């Protein structure tokens, strides 16, 4: 685990990332990142590449589920596709 500190810059708060953190995240100066907070009070920082990959996977999964919805419903009811 790497530790850092939240600093005040003007009216904003800044979280400073060390070179080691940047390397772990595979990000650098000027890169865009996705930042989210979880209910357990944790902060998640993802490189845009990772968040874009996650978005595409969720989109593809949703498309498959929508396209095959009737088959999944019949399987849940115990009806085979040939019936």
Order of helices and strands: EEHEEHH
Distance linking N and C termini = 55 Å
User: Which secondary-structure class do the elements indicate?
Assistant: alpha+beta
Strand order of the largest sheet: 1-2
Number of helices: 3
- Silhouette: elongated
Low-confidence segments, given as residue ranges, are: none
Descriptive account of the structure:
- It contains 3 helices and 4 strands; from the N terminus they run ββαββαα.
- With 83 residues, the chain is of the alpha+beta class.
- The protein has one domain (6-76).
- Strands 1-2 form a two-stranded antiparallel sheet. It has a two-stranded antiparallel ribbon with strand order 3-4.
- A hairpin with a 5-residue loop joins strand 3 and strand 4 (43-47).
- The radius of gyration is 21 Å and the shape is elongated.
